[in-house]
């Protein structure tokens, strides 16, 4: 069995590409990296890679991660800049013995030294939106939370190996150096080949309070289906956060298990893309679950 699932409609072309590779017995790691690379390179997605919206200083800072579900090896970057494919840098870091999670200038330096494609990630379109927002902000208070989405994906190869990865430019108008859940193990992503994998999107500051992706994989490991694990992880956590913290923002998750079954849960309207050996690639909409 092979399969892949990824957050948001923007992942669909990447899901198609990954599906082709997985059908031909491609590896889970190559498939998930190529899926995310497609999204990173597309200039009109405002929240990932090239064309991603900048922080409040006008700099595009990206977070990304890669995890190999066989070895549990992980690599991640936080606040990296001027790099076309942050997830590929994260994957390269996953092969290192030490220094697997690098941030800011250190992450960018690693990418430069290791021959990754460097480019100014701020497109004219993204710059114009930033300038417009700066003008609006001189009259009103800053809400950095409009305009953010992460591409997060899980892949299952015919060999039974699994991988997970994420990439995002984070919150529009975030503070310089702010890092969200996407590169943080167990929060934005997690995968364990004999069990399954999960990825999250939404407000990182909230997702990190619950290590939501790890929790989904843990629940699948107790025998829950991906759907039951997603429901329990998201809705129990959402209720807890409301009780204990007073409010909760966007949280959406996707998961796939080692059998290619999948699940999603969300507290906002949420699109995702999925394909498996038995289901043609499609974009679906998930609606908020129990309050
Ligand atoms: C972050 N989780 O940086 C990311 C952004 C996101 O839907 O996924 N928004 O907090």
Give the topology, please:
Elements: E1 3-7, H1 12-23, H2 28-41, E2 62-68, E3 74-80, H3 86-94, E4 101-103, H4 104-113, H5 124-137, E5 151-156, E6 162-168, E7 189-192, E8 196-202, H6 204-210, H7 212-221, H8 226-245, E9 251-257, E10 262-266, E11 270-276, E12 279-286
Parallel strand pairs: 3-4
Antiparallel strand pairs: 1-5, 1-11, 2-3, 2-6, 5-6, 7-8, 8-9, 9-10, 11-12
The structure holds N-hydroxy-L-asparagine.
Task: Summarize the entry for a quick read.
The protein has 291 residues and is of the alpha+beta class. The protein contains 8 helices and 12 strands.
Query: Which oligomeric state applies?
Result: single chain
Main sheet: strands, sense, barrel: 8 strands, mixed
Count helical runs.
Answer: 8
Major sheet strand order: 4-3-2-6-5-1-11-12
- Give a count of the beta strands, DSSP E runs of length 2 or more: 12
Q: Give the termini separation.
A: 35 Å
The low-confidence runs, each spanning 5 or more residues with pLDDT under 50, are none
Q: What's the pLDDT, averaged over the residues?
A: 95
Portion of residues in beta strands equals 25-35%
Q: Give me the secondary-structure category.
A: alpha+beta
Radius of gyration: 18 Å
Bound molecules: N-hydroxy-L-asparagine
Helical residues, percent = 25-40%
User: What string, H for helix and E for strand, traces the elements in order?
Assistant: EHHEEHEHHEEEEHHHEEEE
Q: Which of globular, elongated, flat, extended, rod-shaped describes the shape?
A: globular
């Amino acid at each position: 069995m092979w399969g892949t699932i990824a957050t948001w409609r923007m992942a669909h072309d990447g899901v198609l590409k990954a599906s082709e590779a997985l059908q031909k017995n491609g590896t889970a790691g190559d498939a998930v990296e190529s899926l995310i690379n497609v999204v990173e390179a597309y200039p009109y997605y405002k929240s990932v890679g090239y064309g991603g919206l900048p922080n409040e200083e006008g700099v595009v800072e990206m977070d990304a991660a890669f995890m190999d579900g066989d070895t549990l090896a992980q690599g991640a970057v936080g606040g990296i800049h001027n790099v076309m494919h942050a997830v590929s840098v994260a994957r390269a870091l996953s092969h290192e013995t030490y220094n697997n999670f690098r941030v800011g200038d250190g992450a960018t330096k690693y990418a430069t030294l290791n021959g990754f494609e460097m480019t100014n990630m701020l497109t004219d379109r993204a710059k114009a939106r930033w300038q417009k927002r700066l003008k609006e902000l001189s009259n009103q208070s800053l809400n950095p939370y409009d305009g953010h989405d992460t591409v997060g994906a899980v892949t299952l190869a015919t060999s039974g190996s699994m991988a997970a990865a994420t990439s995002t430019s984070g919150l529009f108008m975030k503070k310089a150096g702010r890092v969200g859940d996407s590169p943080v193990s167990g929060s934005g992503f997690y995968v364990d080949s004999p069990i399954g994998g999960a990825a999250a999107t939404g407000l990182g500051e909230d997702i990190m309070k619950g290590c939501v992706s790890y929790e989904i994989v843990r629940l699948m490991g107790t025998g829950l289906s991906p759907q039951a694990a997603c429901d329990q992880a998201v809705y129990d956590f959402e209720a807890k956060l409301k009780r204990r913290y007073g409010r909760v923002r966007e949280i959406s998750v996707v998961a796939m298990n080692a059998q290619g079954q999948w699940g999603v849960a969300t507290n906002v309207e949420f699109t995702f893309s999925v394909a498996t050996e038995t289901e043609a690639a499609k974009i679906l909409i998930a609606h908020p679950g129990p309050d």
